[in-house]
Amino acid sequence: MRERTMSTNYQLKRADFIFKNENDWEEVLSKSISRPPQELINELISSELKGRGGAGFPTGLKWKVSSEVKSDVKYVICNADEGEPGTFKDREILSMVPFKVLTAIAICGYVIGAKEGFIYLRGEYNFLKPELLKAINEFEYYCKEIKLDFSIKIFMGSGAYICGEETALFESMEGKRGEPRNKPPYPTLSGYMGKPTVINNVETLAHTYTIFKYGSKRFYDLGVQYSRGSKLFSVSGDTPKPGIYELELGMSLSDFVEEFGDDDTKAVQVGGASGFLVPRKRFSETNIGFQGKLVGISLPTGGSMMLFNSSRSMYNVLDNYLNFFAEESCGQCTPCRVGCQQLLKGIKAVKRGEKNAQYLDKMLKLAETMQVTAKCGLGQSVGNSFSSIVENFREEMIY
Amino acid sequence: MGKNLKITINGATVEVEKGASILEAARQAGVIIPTLCYHKDLCVSGNCRVCVVELAGQKRLSPACATPCEEGMEVLTNSLKVRNSRKHIIELLLSEHNADCTSCYKNGKCELQSLASEYKIMNQDFINLIPYHNYTIDMFSPSIIKDDSKCIRCQRCVRTCAELQGVNALTMSYKGEHAKITTFFEKAMNDVVCTNCGQCINHCPTGALVEKNYIEEVWNAIADKTKHVVVQTAPAVRVGLGEELGFDPGERVTGKMVTALKRLGFDAVMDTDFTADLTIMEEGTELLTRLKKAIVDKDPNIKLPMATSCSPGWIKFIEHMYPEYLGNLSTCKSPQQMFGALVKTYYAKARNLDPANIISVSIMPCTAKKFEANRPEMHDSGYRDVDFVLTTRELAIMIKQAGIDFLKLEDSHYDRLMGESTGAGVIFGATGGVMEAALRTAYELVTGREVPFENLNINPVRGIEGIREATIKIENTLKEWSFLEGVELKCAIAHGLANAKIVMDEVKSGKANYHFIEFMACPGGCLGGGGQPLPTSPEIRARRAKAIYAEDAGMPLRKSHLNPEVVKIYKDFLVAPCGEMSHKLLHTKYTPRKRR
Amino acid sequence: MKPIIELIKELADKHGRNRHSLLPILQGVVEQERYLSEYSMIEIARELDIPATEVYGTATFYTFLDYKKMGKNIIRVCKTITCSMKGEKQILLAIEDMLKIKIGETTQDGLFSLLQTNCLGLCHKAPAMLINNEVYTDLTPEKIREILTMYMNRKDEGENNVN
User: Fold this and answer.
1) A&C contacts, CB < 8 Å
2) Which domains does chain C have, with CATH numbers?
3) Inter-chain contact C117–A124, Cβ cutoff 8 Å?
4) Chain C CB contacts of A273 below 8 Å
5) pLDDT tens-digit map of B321-349
6) What is the pLDDT of residues B373-423, one digit of tens each?
7) Is the dihedral of CA B260, B235, B398, B408 positive or negative?
8) Which domains does chain B possess?
9) Which of B174, B183, B192 minimises the CB distance to C60?
10) pLDDT tens digit string along B155-213?
């Protein structure tokens, strides 16, 4: 018997909301905008939906704050700059059920008082644009029909991971280098063009569609405490069935590996390159969800689940991540720009024997400094994978 | 006034105005938080992370420069976590910085070096990242050297060039490990839209941007017995030099500077203020002539407003940005170049020297002057008019190298012939000074009376605002100037090229109808020039300005046309302002350049 | 192909002459030209009345806005973790072998440039690559040969005129 550390006896539970083809967006839209904005906000708040991009900020709260700010112009932005290694669900949502996302953007606009919405689509997904534009045309046509003054534009990215960071995304939309801003002020008060902006991940918006359609309870009843609802998981790596799966939050990593592993899973990277690597010995005590009072470790994720089997060198994995970060850091703040290079060059030096094993400890400390001093989420999270890999696979780093 | 709020810093309560940053609060409370990317002249960027502090209840540290105070905030500036992190950040910066300090021009003046020293970074064992980058040193500009291997990407230069100067010669380019400060397509500074103003140098914390120095060349010239080496000193140098040599900002060291220059071995020490006075005669005459042609002759080819032409940074700026307005520039050369042209003609003749054997050196608060001296236009004496231009900083280096104890020096006087000046020449060093000097002379020329301001202090044109305007009504003119009777002379002053841009755009759009505009490339005018001592800040510039005006107030003569040597040169050599000889030696033309 | 200056004016008409239209305009030029020349950047800066340096600083931030001359078809092979685990190296070798160029180079005939790129979001179908905006997944050396041959044949059919 595998030991369960969860408070409830939990099984891997599949859900099917996001991709269910319902073809009722017109109804969901017109019904939602006939309800008072406050009611919709309350619905979101009681659903306990948290951002699905990875950071997990309560979505209802975001909408609430922006709705309360007085401003002549506000914006809704759908963050489709899906760049985290191992994440590919947003692309699928936009190609399979674009109307759910468009509907959710418009509802958000209605709630906060915005007349303009944007989808920031990463350059790599340029191929989605034609179909998405068609959908937007049809959507805007319907908006006119029901006299909803709302338009949606696509803003294309051009290949920069950091633009997934919301303030870097605004900078990019404003025609600048995608360098994250100082916070505060937060986007809800001062976002795109300095106006109050709600920016939500594609999947988050798709979930609000479910919530507005079925009511918050239906969503809330899924998942576990602090981690309500279902979530899309992008499964890749050493798995017989890579793909996108909608699962309830709160599952144990062992259950996940049992379902998706290849019987030889050595470690799982939860949350992409900026997330944590969990070694086999910690599968059973690790749950997938937001930090809460659950027993054991709770790991949030934007949905990236990468499995590695025993044939993989964790050194190579880390080397690959660090190369990624060294290139994709925006380069403005010291800890991230220089820190990434140091970690990358450092593990190489240790591997080659140019630095001794103790140098790994110095780098672990550096990773901590990066976590507490970097300007944005990118630099702050490089240490996650670095520390979890180096601590759990130290030998592989040296020999 | 915003509401006040209370925070604690290291346990002590501080009351600050709402909107203040933690850094401002700490400074107010006498707590020093180190900074690198922060500069008082510039917008907050928050990218170096050296100023991180710990806030109670927060896991992550916050940049003090970019974090606004909130009621009840508990700030720790020296906790173990802060110290360790800060040390790491300094180490990281050192690892990407070419820390070959002993061979660096900024050795001893580098903010990163002093931080490293303060934090006793003794066992920096991060990997040296320099070999992984293909860095180059750009030495093509006669004014500025850009060494990317010493850059720590604080972007102070980028912000300076954009915010203060509106030039945007520099930008952050690429990203991640490749991120660096570049020009357009990484061209040489010499080859892009750059005014050589040197404000990037003034704001660079390391040796990544420094002036091209000509110290050895000048030492060699001095040592060459066949050469007669003449030096001129710009007005703003005398109120800045002291800062490099043990005085507080705002100390006037004119007499000591002259003594020092003589001890360095210059054959003649004379004053750019002399040609500043001369500039007023020429430029004032030019202005009045233009006004006459415009008002009386209704000549449509006369370009008004007339713009001053003393600041070579501004000249290069207008050549690039508003070439269609080059006709509005006064044709007068800058005082430096007038001086240079006269040294190898008027002075050579008077002293019976072969101009070929004269080396003309100038001490300037400016790096653009190096470029100006190098212009092909500036050979009207038949020789290169000014051979070497040194900044205030370079002069200080020479004084130290010569083992001169500056603090103990006696005062001495400039040499004759081109060493006499008036208060009007001195105030060229401050923003508004050229305007004030011109008005003092022009008004008197036209009306026969002194300008109607107490003690000749034309306060409306003084100050620190980036753009200032003044209107002076001309009444009861002398007979020959009666066409100016009742004319309200509209003047404007702009300093910092970003402000020059605003004024020029107004001129361009027809919104502004000035007669005369003073433009200075650098914030504060020459006293804030790109060749002045470091550091620079609004307070330091204000103190230098105060010193300039004190120097003016203390002069026996305060109007350019009263300068006896100016009177003499017209009598003996030039004949009359804007006359034939003046046109040959003291006036010039500029060339349009590409805007992008 | 439109003259660049005309193209830039059209793009500015469409997206507006302000800073926040910079990216769409850069993208529009790259769509036609495959890269941003000095000349294009200067003209864009002129059209938007912003400093050319700012255009350069912005363009070089984005991986897909190349500022060096590129071939007609830009191949971007994903090098991030899953693709690297699933045979990205063999894919690169196959391409290099077939086109006789290395990473970062362009073929003599100007038809292909070979680049690496970070995560394309196709990890479940790794290894993956883009050729211009087209996606190719579950790559094998055999598939590479088929795909590239297809692009080469387009050239033969005259649809792919270089210049």
Assistant:
1) 123
2) 4-59 (no CATH), 73-156 (3.40.30.10)
3) yes
4) 80-81
5) 999 999 999 999 999 999 999 999 999 99
6) 999 999 999 999 999 999 999 999 999 999 999 999 999 999 999 999 999
7) positive
8) 4-92 (3.10.20.740), 123-211 (3.30.70.20), 215-274+336-408 (3.40.50.1780), 281-332+423-585 (3.40.950.10)
9) B174
10) 999 999 999 999 999 999 999 999 999 999 999 999 999 999 999 999 999 999 999 99
Lookup result for tokens 């293909």 = B134
Q: From CA A279, how far away is CA A269, in angstroms rounded?
A: 9
The chain C residue lying nearest A89, using CA atoms, is C121
Q: What is the distance between the alpha carbons of residues B522 and B544, in angstroms, rounded to a whole number?
A: 14
Nearest to B480 by CA among B446, B430, B443, B452: B446
Measured between beta carbons, the chain A residues lying within 8 angstroms of C79 are 320, 323
Shortest distance between the Cα of C55 and any Cα of chain A, in A, equals 8
Alpha-carbon distance A319 to A323, whole Å?
Answer: 6
Torsion of CA A63, A68, A74, A77, to 10 degrees: -10
CB pairs below 8 Å between A and B: how many?
120
Q: Closest chain B residue to C36 measured between Cα atoms?
A: B185
* Closest residue by Cα to residue A242 from A110, A349, A92: A92
pLDDT tens-digit series, residues A127-181: 999 999 999 999 999 999 999 999 999 999 999 999 999 999 999 999 999 999 9
- B79 touches B104 (CB < 8 A): no
Task: Tell me which amino acid residue C66 is.
Answer: D
Q: How many residues does chain A have?
A: 399
The complex's ipTM works out to 0.95
- Which residues of B are annotated as catalytic? 283, 286, 310, 330, 369, 372, 377, 526
**Pairwise CA distance, residues B455 & B37, whole Å:** 43
Alpha carbon of A387: minimum distance to chain C alpha carbons (Å):
18
- Residue A80, classed as helix, strand or coil, is strand
Contact C62 A161 (CB under 8 A): no
- Chain A residue numbers with beta carbons less than 8 Å from the beta carbon of C121 are 82-83, 87-88, 90-91, 122, 124-125
If pLDDT is split at 50, 70 and 90, which confidence band does C154 have? confident
For residue A82, which residues of chain C lie inside 8 Å, CB to CB? 121
Please state, for a pLDDT cut of 70, what percent of chain C lies above it.
94
Helices (H) and strands (E) in chain A, counts: 15, 13
